[in-house]
Amino acid sequence: MTARIGVVTFPGSLDDRDTQRAIRLAGAEPVALWHKDKNLHQVDAVVLPGGFSYGDYLRAGAISRFSPVMETVIEQAKAGLPVLGICNGFQILTEAHLLPGGMLGNNHLHFICRDQKLRVENAETAWTSDYESGQEIHIPLKNMDGRYVADQYTLDKLEAEGRVAFRYLDFNPNGSLNDIAGITNEAGNVVGLMPHPEHAVEPLIGTGRTDGLPFFTSILKKLVNA
C-alpha cells in the first residue's frame, strides 16, 4: 500500500492540482483536503500548496492560518507529521509559527516569475533526502510576497543549526535575508520554500528539468521505509 499525501485546497489556491500530479508521478497517492475540514483522512504527510489564499488579504497566509484544517495540521506537525509548504504554503507555515520568521513583499515591489537557481543546503529533512547537500537545482519561482525576513538571532540560529534548506544562487529575486529560499524546523519534518518544485517534475513543462521531483520521492521513501 503506497503512502497517502494530502494536499490542502484553500480559497485562492492555484497549484493544488499540480501538486497532486507531482505526488502521483513520484508514486504516492494524492489526497485532496479541504480547508474547512479538520479531518486529515489518515494521510501520512501534508502539502500546503502555492496560490493566493484569501487573496493575500491582511498578509499572505494570515487568514488561511486560521482555517479549520490548520488546527489539525499544526497539532500533527508538532507530533511529527511531515508538512511541506510551497510559496503561499510557506507563508502559511510562518504565520502558523511552525516555521520561524515571516514573509514580506518583494523588495522591488513587483511580481516575479522566473526559473530560479538554488543550492540545496540541507539534504537531511523528510522532504530533501533525495538531494545531495550542495547540489544546484533549477526550480520555477513566482511570487509577490517572497522576501524572507527574521531577526538576527533567528537568522543566526537557522544558520548555526543547518536549518536553511535552500538558498538562492546567482540572483536574489526578492531581497530575502541571507539569500534564504527555504527553511526547515528543528525536527526536519516541516519544510517551507518559495520556489515551486511541483512545476519541475516533467521535462515537458516548467524548467524542462525534473529538479523538483526529489521533494516528492524523498517523502515517499521516508514514509515507505518508516
Automatic annotation (TrEMBL):
As for subcellular location, the record says: Cytoplasm
Q: Which SUPFAM superfamilies match?
A: Class I glutamine amidotransferase-like
Q: Which residues form the signal peptide?
A: none
| Pfam families named among the record's database cross-references | GATase_5
Q: What is its EC number?
A: 6.3.5.3, 3.5.1.2
This molecule's function is given as: Part of the phosphoribosylformylglycinamidine synthase complex involved in the purines biosynthetic pathway. Catalyzes the ATP-dependent conversion of formylglycinamide ribonucleotide (FGAR) and glutamine to yield formylglycinamidine ribonucleotide (FGAM) and glutamate. The FGAM synthase complex is composed of three subunits. PurQ produces an ammonia molecule by converting glutamine to glutamate. PurL transfers the ammonia molecule to FGAR to form FGAM in an ATP-dependent manner.
What is the protein name given in its UniProt record? Phosphoribosylformylglycinamidine synthase subunit PurQ
Pathway info? Purine metabolism; IMP biosynthesis via de novo pathway; 5-amino-1-(5-phospho-D-ribosyl)imidazole from N(2)-formyl-N(1)-(5-phospho-D-ribosyl)glycinamide: step 1/2
List, from the UniProt record, the residues annotated as the active site of this protein: 87, 196, 198
Q: Identify the species of origin.
A: Streptomyces fuscus
Keyword line: ATP-binding, Cytoplasm, Glutamine amidotransferase, Hydrolase, Ligase, Nucleotide-binding, Purine biosynthesis
Q: How does it assemble?
A: Part of the FGAM synthase complex composed of 1 PurL, 1 PurQ and 2 PurS subunits.
Task: Give the catalysed reaction(s), semicolon-separated.
Answer: L-glutamine + H2O = L-glutamate + NH4(+); N(2)-formyl-N(1)-(5-phospho-beta-D-ribosyl)glycinamide + L-glutamine + ATP + H2O = 2-formamido-N(1)-(5-O-phospho-beta-D-ribosyl)acetamidine + L-glutamate + ADP + phosphate + H(+)
**What's the domain of life for this entry?**
Bacteria
Enumerate the InterPro entries for this protein. Answer: Class_I_gatase-like (IPR029062), PRibForGlyAmidine_synth_PurQ (IPR010075)
